[in-house]
Amino acid sequence: MSDLKTPLLDELEKGAWPSFVKDLKTMADKKPMVKDLLRQLEKSYTDKRGYWKHGGLVGVMGYGGGVIGRYSALPDEFPGVSHFHTVRVNQPSGWFYTADALNELLDIWDEHGSGLLNMHGSTGDLVFLGTVTDELEPTFRALTAKDWDLGGSGSDLRTPSCCVGPARCQNACYDTLALTYDLTHKYQDELHRPMFNYKFKIKMSGCPNDCTAAIARSDLGIIGIWKDDIQVDQAAFAEYVDSGMDIQGAVVDKCPTKCISVEGKEIKIDNSDCVKCMHCINTLPKALKVGKERGAAIVLGAKAPIVEGALFGSVMVPFMKMDDFEELHDLIERIWEFWDEHGKNRERIGECVERVGLANFIEGIGLEPIPQMIKEPRDNPYIFYEEYYEEE
Amino acid sequence: MSTTTERRTDIGPPHYEQFLHPIIKKNYGQWKYHEILKPGVLAHTAESGDVIYTVRAASPRLISTNFARKLTALASKYADGYLRFTSRNNVEFLLANKDNIDPLINELSEFTLVGGTGKSISNIVHTQGWVHCHSSATDASGLVKVVMDELSDYFTSMKLPHKVRLAVACCLNMCGAVHASDIAILGVHRTPPRIDHESLPNLCEIPTTVASCPNNAIRPTSIEGRATVKVDEDKCMYCGNCYTVCPAMPIADALNDGVSIWVGGKISNARTEPMFTKLAVHYLPNNPPRWPEATEAVKNIVEVYAKNAKPYERVGEWIHRIGWPKFFDLTGIEFTKYHLDDFRHAGTTYKRSLQNRY
What we know:
The complex is a heterodimer of chains A (392) and B (358). Chain A has 392 residues and is of the alpha+beta class. Chain A has helices spanning 7-10, 20-28, 32-47, 99-112, 136-145, 176-186, 188-192, 214-217, 234-242, 247-252, 279-283, 326-342, 349-356, 358-365; strands spanning 52-54, 67-68, 70-72, 86-89, 96-98, 116-118, 126-129, 161-162, 202-205, 220-226, 231-232, 260-263, 266-269, 288-289, 294-300, 314-320. At the A-B interface, helix 2, helix 3, strand 1, strand 5 and helix 4 of A face strand 1, strand 4, helix 2, strand 5 and helix 4 of B.
């Protein structure tokens, strides 16, 4: 690689953490695209700025999303990356793969693209990074021949994603993998053909630990929760006590509602006061377990700051049974209908709810106001009364 | 029977069940508890008594097919061909046989690190940066590399008061969602877009460009008879939204772009409610290839937290207990006028009590 001079990037080959530079260089001889990517990146490191142009309408036939157009701003200098489009591949629920299936994906990308990828992108898709316009349709055909499809991009439903759930976690309060599969397949049209005001992300977490960050990163979060008592194995608890663990400091004092006490080697939980925060269950996994009456809380409206400021999701439904997903489908469709009618261009659902007001929004989607939806009631007296008495 | 030339659309992803290890399939939804055997190694025990072992290793997220093939080869050799990825871009191998754990770790150690479990610093969630993004104010993969080089000891051990979640986003769009991380690095532009009046009329649709600005800072105008736009620079918050819709308004500025450091966010509901990250350091220079200022700032916060927080306190919970004045005091970070919010609902961040430590 005598013609690949990257003295600044070479500094990133040092150190204990796996080096993407070292890795990318293994592709540079095989792929002129990777060589020019490294050369352009070296220029960015020298000049302290990026050299990519945004967008351009590229994609596969019949889809409005799934491919992000990307072009070098310096195509004469770096012809290998004059086109460097991204293909978003819809990931399987829980990011589980077999080596064989993943190898097939890698074969496709070695043949049709740069051989560089993200495992995974921020929304959860497997991201193929860098190909030319003429390879998009062949890539898509190769993917679908092996039963893979594209994810979302632009103003559409983005690929729903989920935590490891019941596949390998004792805390899962519903089947996050099944729901992700269900929603992804049910809403293929919304995923592949942008027709929303802006993007719409759905994330599934199995419990309030929220490993997919649904409360912060998804327009619609479905987060597992239970209603009844925490399940206790007193014998296993006694073993924690016998081990010399500081139960008082590590568990009792950390309970946000102080509903835990210890008598001898027995743990007592006032479940009527428990807010399902998960701390005691996380800390004593052998002794404590989520309850048996399980479902999910539905939170709406999270997003990063652009443009009106960051939002966390807020509770729409504090508990919904997840034995089947019909009630959820119905709610999602009512939310989309309201957003379609009242939302503005490039306005996320969370911003839309704040603009129209929560009361108007829930009335629009057919939910009753309940105190679980709020942190506290309003502190200002400017109430828009809709009903009042009139003289007869 | 379908032919290979048939064009298939809207088939969705393959069913996940075919990718589940037989032990996982058998004990699906029937897990009893899990233990961390050592950093990077989990054992999940099912009600049936079956155990599945997980070995977790770091990935740079931006990888080549060569790197990925190393992972699939190791999965075939040690994990019956089963692997998965986590929401923080780690790779996990699912092992039926406990005896395969150490040989797998040995082979992984040749090219990556094993860890990221329990009270550790796990992999950094991050964005594309200069490798692939048009609006980035900094690189992401490079920042992750240099920060994790510095903190790798916390990835391979479990000695912190609690887990620390790091994130890097290369501009305010925050594809990396740094708004709810224990510590985050955010790329920032600090100057308004420059307008290429020559090419703007050909490249951009003016009403869309005007509408793209969240602060109504962009107005249509004409210069020498050519339709273009002007920017009210006092109103610009450097978000780069206009550049996304109009390539004739570049916002990258090598002299002024850099990074800011944010602290105290969390996602989980454990103990305390989810929290947003707050500004710690408003600006540090882009200093590739190893960003010594940013790396040092993050390391300093981690070390002050490690020394002062109580067990089970996340960074935000620790700061909440000691108060912000003490956070700035202990970390030595300078408090500036930029720490005072002046955007929407800024007043909610003002101190409206006398509960301060003297």
